[in-house]
Amino acid sequence: MASTLSWSSSSWLKNFSVNTNGKGTSTSKLSDKEATTLIVAQKKAKKTRKIILKEDVDYLGEKGQLLDVKAGYFRNYLLPMGKATIVTPTLLKEMRMEEERIEAEKKRVKEEAQQLAVLFETVGAFKVKRKGGKGKQIFGSVTSQDLVDIIKAQLQRDVDKRIVSLPEIRETGEYVAELKLHPEVTAHIRLNVYAN
């Protein structure tokens, strides 16, 4: 048989002192409902800390992430290893400023890529001259490095050959190449291959 606490026998909970306008204390009675509310309010609080990670932590999060972790884990592992700091208003403000700066930089880079794409697409066709063979055949092929050299000669722009995507070119004719200037911006340029 389980023993239960009888509320009527707990007289200390039923009688409590209330300060009335600074004139002293008076005793008042609590109902069972109010007594229960007092007990629930005394629930033990969880001890967690709001932190910001300074570096990636396995099974926890990535650098700059805002997390709630247990106080002991922070105190005994994250803090001594220098992997996290407690969140402060100053630190939050610095994080927001850094995020805004990064977003502005990403936006600027994307706009530059879009302007460069418009420039490449309005130039017209780049002419590539190759030694010709029988019919439309040319000796060798046109590579991405050839296109990079032509762009540098005509537009005085440095382009990385790794962003150039060319179809296989072994004949004379007109082709379209893609330049991946930004993850969201791709420029299509025309190539006019002819034999001399």
UniProtKB/TrEMBL annotation:
UniProt keyword annotations, A-Z: Chloroplast, Coiled coil, Plastid, Ribonucleoprotein, Ribosomal protein, RNA-binding, rRNA-binding, Transit peptide
Compartments reported by the entry: Plastid, Chloroplast
Protein name in the entry: Large ribosomal subunit protein bL9c
Similarity remark: Belongs to the bacterial ribosomal protein bL9 family.
High-level lineage: Eukaryota, Viridiplantae, Streptophyta, Embryophyta, Tracheophyta
UniProt domain Ribosomal protein L9: residue ranges: 61-88
Statement: the UniProt record of this protein carries the keyword Transmembrane: no
One BP term from GO: translation
GO cellular component: chloroplast; ribonucleoprotein complex; ribosome
NCBIfam families hit by this protein: L9
InterPro entries hit by this protein: Ribosomal_bL9, Ribosomal_bL9/RNase_H1_N, Ribosomal_bL9_bac/chp, Ribosomal_bL9_C, Ribosomal_bL9_C_sf, Ribosomal_bL9_N, Ribosomal_bL9_N_sf
A Pfam family that the UniProt record links to this protein: Ribosomal_L9_C
PANTHER family for the chain: 50S RIBOSOMAL PROTEIN L9
Keyword rRNA-binding on entry: yes
GO molecular function: rRNA binding; structural constituent of ribosome
UniProt feature coiled coil, ranges: 92-119
